[in-house]
Amino acid sequence: MESTTFDWRCSKTWKQSAKNTAWCLLGCAIGDFGTILYFQLTKIPFPVLGIMILAIINGLITSIILETIILIKQNFSFSNALRTALGMSFISMISMEVAMNLTDYLLTGGAILTWWVVPLMLIVGFLTPWPYNYWRLKKFGVACH
Fold it and tell me: 122: Cβ–Cβ under 8 A, 6 or more apart, which residues?
């Protein structure tokens, strides 16, 4: 029986998976931060958990939109770009969103953007799915761009 070991030391794959993760983070952060900021500025009374759930949903939506645009710029047809964006790893996107919002919740009480929490949310949001994205890219050659 042949035993293969997985190589976690490929710098080329780490760089590519970091790029993929950063694009996903940008897409997620636009919708997530936009939602939190909207409720923070308008002071609309809404439960923190509700705001955070909306932020996660909007983050997923804006990530899919951004990925679709990126793929169209790489000469995908709209339908193929959208299908590819929708087929991306939701495990990665959801883990990123949950990590970002959990960080916000633990540090501020939730649904509050401050100058010091945003960088921490982005760092945690990037680091959480990055190893998974590396593994997925290395093992299956699957990336979103």
Answer: 25, 29, 100
- Tally of structural domains, the chain: 1
Check the CA dihedral 95-99-101-102 and report its sign.
positive
Could you tell me the CA-to-CA distances from 121 to 3, 10, 53, 59, 99 in Å, in that order? 39, 27, 16, 13, 8
Determine the structural domain holding residue 79 and report its residue range: 12-140
Helices (H), 45-77: 48-73
pTM above 0.85, yes or no: yes
Q: What is the pLDDT along the chain (145 residues), one digit of tens a residue?
A: 555 688 999 999 999 999 989 999 999 999 999 999 999 999 999 999 999 999 999 999 999 999 899 989 999 999 998 988 887 778 899 999 999 999 999 999 999 999 999 999 999 999 999 999 999 889 887 665 4
Is 126 contained in some domain? yes
Specify if 2 maps to a domain: no
The answer to the question of residue 35 being in a domain is: yes
